[in-house]
Design goal:
Layout (H helix, E strand, L loop, with lengths): L1 H33 L11 H13 L16 H13 L4 H6 L6 H12 L7 H16 L9 E5 L4 E5 L5 E10 L9 E9 L3 E2 L2 H14 L1 H7 L2 E4 L5 E2 L17 E4 L10 E5 L7 E2 L13 E3 L3 E3 L2 H9 L19 E14 L3 E3 L3 E3 L17
Helix pairs in contact: 2-3, 5-6, 7-8
Organism: Dyadobacter luticola
Pathway: Cell wall biogenesis; peptidoglycan biosynthesis
GO biological process, one term: cell wall organization
Length: 376
C-alpha cells in the first residue's frame, strides 16, 4: 500500500508540476501577445527573451523620434532581466513587471486586462486591439525621466504625465477630421505663445478662403479679421489687389488672422518642433468640447484646458484661469520659451481602461484591414 501511495503521490506531484509549467507558458504566451509579438519566443532563449522584454518595456514603434527628442533606452537593465529569468523561469513575471512602463494609462489598462477574462469568439480580436494600445503607451517609457504630453486620437483626450508616470492633467481635445487627420508623431513642445497670429496654411487659404474673398474682398477679410501678407512680409491692402486674377495656382500672398477676439487659435498656442505644421492651441469655439464627436480640425489639436497645460509646462502658476475669457483684440503676440522642452507623443490607441475596457471607433480607418472590435 505504501508503494502504491508513493507512486500516486509522485504522479500527482508530476501532474501539478506539468500544470504549473503549462500555466507559465500560457501566461508567457499571453504576455507576448500583449507585447504585440507574432510568436511568443522561448523563455530559455536569451535572444528571443530579450526581444520580448525590450518590446514589453519600450514598445515596437514605427514612430520616428527626431534628434531633439531625447530617448532613454536602458539596454543593460533588459540584459540583467534576461539573465535573471533564464536562471529562474518561474519568476519571469516578477522580472518582466519590473521593466514595464510606469505611466498610468499603461498600468491602468494592464491591470484591467489582468482582472478580466477575454473569452469567446472575439477574444483574439480584443487581444489585437489591446496589444496595439499597450504598445502605444509603452512609447512613453522611452521618454522616462521627462514630463510628457500624451494625445490619443481615438479617445480625443490629452494627458500630461510626470516623470513618475502620474497623470497631472487629463482633458478633452479636438483633433483632425477623417479628411484632414492629425498625423502620428513625436516632437518637442518648445514654447508657449500668447495672443498668437494664425498663419493660415496655404492649402486652407486657397481652397476655403480665396473663393469667399473673391466674392467680397474687403467685407470678408474684415469679418474674419484677416490680413494679406506679401512675399516680402508686408501687410497689403485688399483694395490694391486684383482678386479676379488670383487662383489656387496663382496666389503669391499668405493670409494671417489678427490676434485675440475671434482668432481660431484662441489666445494660447503651444509650438511644436514638428515637420507637420501641427501644434496645440486654444480655440474660439469652446462649445465644441461638449460634443462626443471631436474630430473636427484641419489636423491641429485644440485643447480644452489650455491654461492648466501652460502652467504645467512652465512649472508655475503663470496664467490665471480667466486668461482665456479675456479675449482682447489685436494685442501683441508674445513668445515664451519653456524652461525645458517637453516631448509630445501622438498615439492611436483604440482601447483605454475606465472602470473596465472602453473601446473607441477607428476614426481614421487605420485598422480597416485588421480585425478589431469596438463598442463605442
Amino acid at each position: 500500500m505504501r508503494s502504491i501511495s508513493l507512486i500516486l503521490a509522485l504522479l500527482l506531484t508530476a501532474w501539478i508540476n506539468q500544470s504549473l509549467i503549462a500555466q507559465t507558458h500560457l501566461s508567457w504566451n499571453s504576455a507576448s501577445l500583449m507585447a504585440g509579438m507574432d510568436t511568443p519566443g522561448k523563455l530559455s532563449d536569451s535572444a528571443e527573451l530579450s526581444r520580448v522584454l525590450y518590446t514589453i518595456a519600450y514598445g515596437s514603434t514605427g514612430k520616428k523620434f527626431p534628434k531633439q527628442v531625447l530617448e532613454k533606452i536602458d539596454s543593460a537593465h533588459i540584459a540583467r532581466m534576461v539573465g535573471l529569468i533564464i536562471k529562474d523561469t518561474a519568476q519571469w513575471q516578477l522580472h518582466a513587471r519590473a521593466i514595464e512602463p510606469l505611466a498610468e494609462p499603461y498600468q491602468d489598462l494592464r491591470r484591467t486586462v489582468d482582472s478580466i477574462s477575454l473569452a469567446g469568439s472575439d477574444s483574439l480580436l480584443q487581444w489585437t486591439t489591446i496589444s496595439h494600445a499597450l504598445n502605444e503607451y509603452r512609447i512613453v517609457n522611452r521618454l522616462a525621466g521627462q514630463m510628457t504630453v500624451l494625445v490619443n486620437i481615438p479617445s480625443a483626450t490629452l494627458r500630461v504625465i510626470d516623470p513618475a508616470g502620474h497623470v497631472l492633467l487629463k482633458c478633452k481635445v479636438i483633433v483632425g477630421s477623417p479628411h484632414t487627420p492629425t498625423p502620428i508623431f513625436v516632437a518637442n513642445l518648445t514654447r508657449v505663445i500668447t495672443y498668437p497670429y494664425w498663419n493660415i496654411p496655404r492649402s486652407i487659404a486657397v481652397k476655403e478662403f480665396l473663393p469667399k474673398i473673391k466674392k467680397d474682398p474687403s467685407g470678408y477679410l474684415n469679418a474674419m479679421k484677416l490680413q494679406v501678407i506679401s512675399p516680402q512680409g508686408n501687410i497689403v491692402g485688399p483694395e490694391i489687389i486684383d482678386w479676379k486674377r488670383l487662383s489656387a495656382k496663382n496666389f503669391p500672398y499668405r493670409l494671417r488672422q489678427s490676434t485675440g477676439c475671434d482668432n481660431a487659435l484662441g489666445v494660447i498656442k503651444f509650438d511644436l518642433d514638428s515637420p507637420y505644421d501641427v501644434y496645440l492651441h486654444d480655440t474660439d469655439h469652446r462649445e465644441l468640447f461638449s460634443k462626443k464627436y471631436r474630430f473636427l480640425s484641419h489636423g491641429c489639436i485644440r485643447v480644452a484646458e489650455p491654461v492648466k497645460l501652460a502652467n504645467l509646462l512652465m512649472g508655475k502658476e503663470w496664467l490665471s484661469d480667466a486668461f482665456t475669457d479675456e479675449r482682447y483684440c489685436n494685442l501683441p503676440s508674445k513668445s515664451y520659451p519653456l524652461p525645458n522642452a517637453v516631448p509630445v507623443v501622438i498615439t492611436y490607441a483604440m482601447v483605454e481602461a475606465e472602470a473596465g475596457l472602453v473601446y473607441y471607433q477607428d476614426i481614421y480607418k487605420a485598422f480597416a484591414n485588421r480585425p478589431v472590435t469596438f463598442n463605442r
